[in-house]
Amino acid sequence: MKAAILGTTGYTGMVLLRLLAEHPDVEEVLPVSSSQGGEPIETADPGIGDALKAKTERSGGRFLSVDGMAAMKPDVVFSALPHMTSAEVCGPFFGSAVVIDLSADFRIKDRTLFEKAYKQPPPRSDLLEHAVYG
Question: pTM for the complete prediction?
Fold first, then answer.
């Protein structure tokens, strides 16, 4: 399986990067960063091991842009982006990959309850009915 991580340089993204590096069903990891695209992963995490180096070989061990990652056609896209940003960035991947959003963007299906909790409307209310929270 080819797994992409949006927001790899944040705390959640870095933890996920290390977990996927050791996952036996993940053959390739596509680390994405809008702020550090093109930079070596080791600049953000000097402690990456050989397993991650092997799984990021195709990206040259560097962070990718969203477009660069999309061209590699991931099977699954993990979003470790901030709340209210994730849904917009993930939009193009719905239907072509499994999207696992770690933010709150799809956590609450009820629009009214979402607005009450987050003080703003959901970023992609058109997709709320299809979201699964687990």
Answer: 0.89
